[in-house]
Amino acid sequence: MKIPPLHALMCFESAARLTSMKAAAEELCVTSSAVSQQIAKLENVTNTRLFIRSPRRLELTTEGRIYLRAIRPAFSQIAEATQRLTNDGKANKVTISCTSGFAIQWLLPRLPAFEKANPGVEVQISTTNRQVDLLSEGIDFAIRHGAGSYPGMESECLVNDKLLPVCSPRLIVPEHELSSPNDIAEYTLLHDEHRLDWSVWFRALSIANVNTDTGPVFVDSNGVIEAAIAGKGIALVRSALVQEELASGLLINPLKIPVDSPIAYYLVYEESAILQKISRRFRDWITTAANKYPVI
């Protein structure tokens, strides 16, 4: 089916949102009669009654309410993309969505360099584990942990270093030596939400018969790292996320046997995000910062 005329959709969305033909006409700078005609055209095209009309009120039908909810995100995306296009050079804010673990362990230690190079720019970080809708939620960039395939969006790999087991130096005691990968099975395994990481690590070393389904699961890497520092078990993390902890001795890498992972951290964004100069600068900065990190 063809897309209905855009003007008819605009009149419907405005009248439905404002529950008034007159208010919609004022918002769109046309007459009430023009709005009514456009809505009638849309009802004819869709062969569906969208409004219940009465002298005192305008009410959506059930089909009209469902249709409004379905098309509203498209109008939000158009508005957001247009704002980005017309606001080029004026914006002074970049909004990023990522997990709290990535924000604390990777992004925040590096962010002062961006802020110093771009004085007056506000960086807003929204920490969440859910997958956000970038345009409709007004978010410029998301950092996602996955295989890199995000249909309809741009993605650039940020962190793809190896997985390595880390723990508190206090955890290793004489009665539980840790001299080979098989010894790890004697300790509590700590997991983030990607519980499969430990099975990937053991499989890469051709070690079978280890139950990797045991041990606590944390919502993100920050929780699992804090648990490892507290001596609650052995965590399997990316080396980029524990640079400071390894350097300070809070954590150790007792076996020094990193393995590759099939997933990585990606910078994901709608192409329209970089219509704004400040967003382009942030994209260029964060990808350069990621490339500076030495892969272990």
UniProtKB/TrEMBL annotation:
Family matches, as Gene3D superfamilies: Periplasmic binding protein-like II (3.40.190.10), Winged helix-like DNA-binding domain superfamily/Winged helix DNA-binding domain (1.10.10.10)
Keyword DNA damage attached: no
GO molecular function terms noted in the UniProt entry: DNA-binding transcription factor activity; sequence-specific DNA binding
Stored CDD domains: PBP2_GcdR_TrpI_HvrB_AmpR_like
One Gene Ontology term from the biological process aspect of the record: DNA-templated transcription
UniProt entry tagged with the keyword Electron transport: no
Cited PROSITE patterns: HTH_LYSR (PS50931)
Keyword annotations from UniProtKB, A to Z: DNA-binding, Plasmid, Transcription, Transcription regulation
Pfam families, per database record: HTH_1, LysR_substrate
Family, per entry: Belongs to the LysR transcriptional regulatory family.
UniProt name for this protein: GcvA
Gene source species: Citrobacter freundii
Highest classification ranks of the organism: Bacteria, Pseudomonadati, Pseudomonadota, Gammaproteobacteria, Enterobacterales
